[in-house]
Amino acid sequence: MAFFHNSAIIGASGQAGYQVERSLRFNSVDSTYLERTPASAGNRKTWTYSCWLKLASLTQGERNILFGPAGGEFGGVTIYQDGGLRFAHAWDPAGTDYIRETVALFRDPAAWYHVVWWCDTTQSGTRWRIYVNGVEQALQTPGGNNGEPAQNTDLPINSTNAHYLGGNFAYGHFSGYLTEIHFIDGQALTPSSFGEYDTITGVWKPKRYSGSGYGTNGFFLKFADNSGTTAATLGKDSSGNGNNWTPNNFSVTAGAGNDSMIDSCTSYADGGNGRGNYATLNPLDSLGGDFFNGNLEFAGTFASVQSQNGHGCRSTLKVLPTGKWYVEAANITYSGSGNSCLLGFTSSTQAITATAFSGTLTPFIGVDASVFSNRITLSWVGVSGGTANSTQLFATYASGDVVSFAIDFDAGKFWVAKNNTWYNSGNPAAGTNATSTFTVGSVDWAFWGEYTASSDNSNRSSVVANFGQRAFAYTPPSGFKALNTANLPEPSIKKPSSYMDVSLYTGNGGSAVTTVTNSGFQPGLVWLKARSSAYDHKLVDAVRGASGGIYYDLQSNSTGAESLPSAGITSLTSTGFTISAATNNGYNGNGTTFVAWQWAESATSGFDIVTYTGTGSATTIAHNLGVAPAMMIVKKRNTATGSTWVVYHKSLTTPSTDYLRLELTNASATAASVFGAVPTSSVFTVGTDAATNGNADTFVAYLWSEVAGFSKFGSYTGNGSADGPFVFCGFRPRWVMIKASSFSGESWYIFDTARNTYNVIGVGLVPNLDIAEFSATLLDVVSNGFKIRAVNTLHNTNGATYIFAAYAESPFKFALAR
């Protein structure tokens, strides 16, 4: 698929600063790499390597070389499989391996990483460092290997041996995208020489290198000249040194094989598609397929463990359910009888399952290319006002034909073309003669799938997508745009930590006032929990307030009434909160580690706190969100009698009557007397139940609404696999809460990236229990959502439904891979 860019929608934050024009795609099956043999040796003790990269397939092999010389097991900076992708560096001088690898796993294919490798063997202390997105990584030495080399060791990089970028014939070729490659010979530099934090978004971004030269063998590759595939064009060194690199097996010819992309780590308007992070197909959100050509080609595979031969995937960027988008697909190929390939758009609520791809995908709007009588026919299938349809569009299809899609989400119209001929003389630009119409809001995600009738890989379909990162085959209709971060709308909250943040602190036993800071806002709600000890959760808010200088608290793991602790939070400041200089182990136990989750109360951030007095009769309560809440938590304050923590969530089966209890492990229950109606943009309803409306009882209600790029409330279905569901959020999460809603016996769980700064996220807390935090393999936080990485009842029982709430670390428009 490819989407056409309309520069008018790009906001200022997408255009400012240093701009990276192009990237080079490396496709391991083509054995793509660049090569250079230095004429003379440089500094073999001290240097810096910096690059921006975007990963492709995550099952591409054991070792994939980013940069290094010939010889040696890894040869240099490496990405390799070890339960996930890690960056490592290793050498084999004089027959000795020196290997250090990151503790963190890196397997996010949706966005860009910045990697800096710092080497200085003259140091008496640390001699190797790896930085990712500006942050130094914790390193470990794999079992049975040596760590760093001895002081003053001369290493193979900068020798007169052949050096490679993106490949090593013995140990594998890189699959993905590279750009902005700097090599500084003779200096060990930190990431600040190549990047900086954006003052508006707080996200790490590239900047122009202005250091004191590159040294003898230094170079700068930006792949901006795609007029050829020579060392003087595609492999040109822009440092001024003339240290060009010879490209091997790359193509700049128009079409699916073109490796020169405008997929970039910076977003800006360019008068065409827009430069930025482009959508690709998503290996994290797929079933039974292989990915090639930088995740732009998908081929279904038969897997004997699957009950059906349905395969498919969605794109890394979700198409917003508004606006106009143009897409293309080509090279649709397969053999055998009864196979088909689905291309188009589906709902984000559609689960990725084999049965979906074998013909039950609903809703879906797109085309079905299938084999019939030794010809490939193209038919439209999908939903029109909720009714499935099938209409033959074009009598034949050849593998070189290009299928174009134009979709208008606001009008609910969809057009299909073959080789620039629109079906039924359609005119997307004018909005006339649509191939079909669909229910507005029923589809919102670029989708690819295939069904293989036979149980072997000799008969399978494949398709090559183009989201606009390479030249279009045909000029898109006016007003239709490309799916990349430059074309995503400006989020209302560009820096999420200004409205929701996670703070860590260690208690002092009350020996002094404890000051806890966030990123610079006054919290309306502070929810804190001891991490290292079994103390109650504490919820304090600005509306219930304080008495005698101490704030009232509630405990999410208890049905008790609110209490006024003898020592606790004494103030909610403009940058966090303070805790009194008196002992209360639940707030400041000596040496106890704590986490504090904080929300600003405002319509902008979608959080409101409401207190009310119950009447015993069904009634409505006003709120200030301006939109309907997606989740509400209601708690009786004045007594434990008939009290519980009642949770409304928009993704429960029947949200008007279904509810959960925060202090219990129960599945969702149904009672019209608890809420009784779906909340509106101005009020929420409480019924006659004592838990939400006991006569003369006092209550507090915490209300959260969904804010695009900042907060997300939804559900997913477990698959019982270590390759668990992918949950799209539209941002890189900072905080996630999950609860099984379809079965009883499982707790609530909260994860955050302050306690776990790298993947796999493996530390959780339990809102319904006072226990200390626990450790387990749980999930990956990625640039556009989260990926479940384990099989357990906690968050991934096969066929079970889980609801979640998530808050952003960075909107996807700006997010880097994690």
Notes on the structure:
The structure is a single chain. This protein is mainly beta and 818 residues long. It has 5 domains: 24-261, Jelly Rolls (Sandwich); 281-487, Jelly Rolls (Sandwich), CATH 2.60.120.920; 496-599, no CATH class; 607-704, no CATH class; 711-811, no CATH class. The protein is 2% helix and 39% strand. Strands 1, 3, 8, 9, 10, 15, 18 and 20 form an 8-stranded antiparallel β-sheet that branches. β4 (63-69) and β5 (77-81) form a beta hairpin. The model is unreliable at 1-15 and 304-308 (pLDDT under 50).
Number of helices: 3
Shape: globular
- Do you know the CATH architecture of the largest domain? Sandwich
Quick one: CATH class of the largest domain? Mainly Beta
Q: How many domains?
A: 5
What percent of residues are in strands? 35-45%
Poorly predicted parts: 1-15, 304-308
Report the biggest beta sheet as strand number plus sense, adding barrel if it closes: 8 strands, antiparallel
Q: Residue-averaged pLDDT, rounded?
A: 88
Q: Helix fraction?
A: under 10%
What is CATH's topology name of the largest domain?
Jelly Rolls
Number-wise, the strands total 60
Rg on CA atoms, Å = 28 Å
How far is the N terminus from the C terminus? 25 Å
Structural class: mainly beta
